[in-house]
Amino acid sequence: MAGTKQHIVLQTKNLSIGYSSKHEENCIAKDLNITLTKGKLVCLLGRNGIGKSTLLRTLSKTQEKLSGDINIDGEKLLNISSADLSKKMSLVLTERIPESQLSVYELIALGRQPYTNWLGRLSKEDVMRIEQAIELVDIKDICTKKNYELSDGQLQKVMIARALAQDTDIIILDEPTAHLDLHHKIEVFKILQSLVHKTNKTIILSTHEVNLALQLADELWLMTENKFTTGTIDNLIKSKDLETIFPKNQIVFNPDLKQFTLKK
Amino acid sequence: MIPQKTYTKQALFLGILLMATWLVNISLGSVDIPFKDLFQIIFGSNESKESWNYIVWNFRIPKSITAILVGSGLGISGLLMQTLFRNPLAGPFVLGISSGASLGVAVLILGSTFLGSFLGAFSPSSYSVTIASSLGSFLVLSVVLIAIKKIRNTMSILIIGLMFGSISAAIINVLSYFSSAELLQQFIFWSFGSLGNLSWQELGVFSGILLFSILFLLKSIKPLNGLLLGENYAVSMGINLKKTRTLVLVVTSLMTGVITAFSGPIAFIGLAVPHLTKLLFDTSDHKVLIPSVAFTGAILMLICDTIAQVPNSEYTLPINAITSLFGAPIVIWLLIRKQKSTI
Lengths: 264, 343
What we know:
Structural class of chain B: mainly alpha
Number of helices of chain A: 8
Largest sheet of chain A: 6 strands, mixed
CATH topology of chain B: ABC transporter involved in vitamin B12 uptake, BtuC
Largest interface: A-B, 36 and 28 residues
CATH architecture of chain B: Orthogonal Bundle
Radius of gyration of chain A: 19 Å
Oligomer: heterodimer
Low-confidence stretches of chain B: none
Mean pLDDT of chain A: 91
Order of helices and strands of chain A: EEEHEEHEHHHEHEHEEHEE
Distance between the termini of chain A: 48 Å
Number of domains of chain B: 1
């Protein structure tokens, strides 16, 4: 895979995000410049309400940008149809899925929709991909269960498997570890990290698990009120940007441990 | 490999049940026709009685076909609405389409008080009622479609539909208040619903429109399955949400409008049939659900019609009352039973 190292999967230039209506523009963040190469686990960190979800929604074309450019695989996001985008990018959202009778296997199989024919019939290749996804996330034992029988942790793994089955270079996850206990949080992070290594996918997730992110991420995106920085953990520690994501009166960053600790 | 479920057994069961209910339906009526003669009439070799022949071919069979069309059409409409709005309470009635049809008929029948000589010139025949109710549902449909263009939130469309229902009901109330008892009775009889009275020619138009609608629906099976995960996931899997929404709404409106036009506002079936079917099939896959909902709807409607005509009596009860009276307890019972078994 020589040469792929420099392949830029996602790039933004002077991106502004927020909400706009006829009368006014509510800009949440501006001057976002991102260059992301393939095969990275990226954690988006920032306080509640700082605009993490808005950024992820904008990058996934769920929400319109205010200005600037977003390029996926060198192509303008604006020009990519949702059918084409569905083969490049898959999502794991925070929203609960509506009530249905879907089994775990059927739910994961829906991830193959971009590739199946007009009736949604699964080909051999589709079945192979689905099984691969099930294997990678290690949920073979719950395949025949209905989605409403799952615990939060299991459901999150299933949703990740669905995104995997969609077979895209980029997977975006919005707070995938919310509502999970520590054990499952670590499990989800570990799964995502191993996916990046095994499949060379690019995974972007927003999270509040700063300490876990510091141990497992390849790259961090930091969002604060007036600055957006990206970089490897070491670089962000050196530039002292990492310390700025929380107000300093309660939590401080300990560069030796590479962890945040309570202020004594 | 994980085996994918097949539903041959259930499909066979539904098929046989449909045949059986159909036979029972056409064998019973106010005139007692022995089963043996009935068979001979159907297969065209009966010389016993000309009147029986006439009754079977011109009353019972058209009525049973109407029941099948109405039941399956309303069932499918209900299923589509429930998936599209992600709401188990949705049905063809909630979009206000049926209310629009009722309004059309109300204006035709009751409005003659106001419009006097103009409408009085042609007394409400079956065709003018059909046209009036089609126009009514089409009017509501157009407004809903305009609303869709402006509104992104599907839930708001549902609420707008409900509001149209209220507006129509209110206008009908006002019209009723000023109408004579005779006209009022005429309108109420229409609102009871009726599966009879359709000629073979009308049946042809009816089934043609329904088949045409269903043909279009085949294209929406895949996006509907995608919508099971919610709108955002569906779009991320490459589904054109706007196109799907418009297609589904136009098709359901057309089906509901036509059904209401030909048989009156038949309540309950559209809401209940999808739930009954899901209990039987235990799946959310629309590839399986759409045909099975059509079958279940047809069967339920045939049973209701059989009950409504009160075998061996002269009475025919309003079909609209029967569907709710007998259908609702069944659904309640099934849901309670299901609840028990899952605990």
